[in-house]
Amino acid sequence: MLKIKEIEKSFRNGDEVVKALNGVSLEISENEFVAFMGSSGSGKSTLMNILGCLDTPTHGEYFLNGANVASMSDEALSKVRNEHIGFIFQTFHLLPKLDAIGNVKLPLRYSNISDEEATERAVHLLKKVGLEHRMHHKPFEMSGGQRQRVAIARALINNPAVVLADEPTGNLDSRTSEEIMALLTDLHKQGQTIVMVTHEDDIAEFAERVVRMKDGQVISMESNNV
């Protein structure tokens, strides 16, 4: 599913070159649930951006479903993002003027799918995440947990090969965090590949495998008994 080989990423900070990733190699299988952990500056967010085709590596190869996306153009990467990757963010990234259905449909705006079919998909997914009674509510009318459920439904609208979750419980209380992680676990059991960044050990325990990073390198991989 996902395979990266000797990935490096460097940034220029004034006269200094900072290496955010230094020779990272790993594979993530289809229907795997993987969590990345590490302190600030460990490289986990940079790696997530590369896996999500939001950024390209300075050196190395990244294969997504067999295609090397590391050297693709911005236009090609945009197409890959839209068709193969679903994103869940800590801050939800919902548009305040749209209701739940409108927000979930958003990634389909530039597809060939009719608005009627897009609405049907959005309604189905909102029911799937337990929001059948909140479909016409706007973000400010919903709790943090409900907004994150909308974001999860939006991430699934294109039937993505992989869902990337960046601190999906970072803005939620402990009870709501457990509800969101139970939902992600159910999606994983239904066959969804999930890659998550978190700094919380109790959240990482929901994943099958935990990849720990430090100073731009993978320092350990641990399997969870889930």
From TrEMBL:
Transmembrane spans: none
Keywords for this protein: ATP-binding, Nucleotide-binding, Transport
PROSITE patterns referenced in this protein's UniProt entry, alphabetically: ABC_TRANSPORTER_1, ABC_TRANSPORTER_2
Database matches in CDD domains: ABC_MJ0796_LolCDE_FtsE
Location of the ABC transporter domain: 2-226
GO cellular component: plasma membrane; transmembrane transporter complex
Entry superkingdom: Bacteria
InterPro entries in UniProt: AAA+_ATPase, ABC_transporter-like_ATP-bd, ABC_transporter-like_CS, ABC_transpr_LolD-like, MacB-like_ATP-bd, P-loop_NTPase
Keyword Nucleotide-binding annotated: yes
Pfam families for this protein: ABC_tran
GO MF term set: ATP binding; ATP hydrolysis activity; transmembrane transporter activity
Family statement: Belongs to the ABC transporter superfamily. Macrolide exporter (TC 3.A.1.122) family.
Record protein name field: ATP-binding cassette domain-containing protein
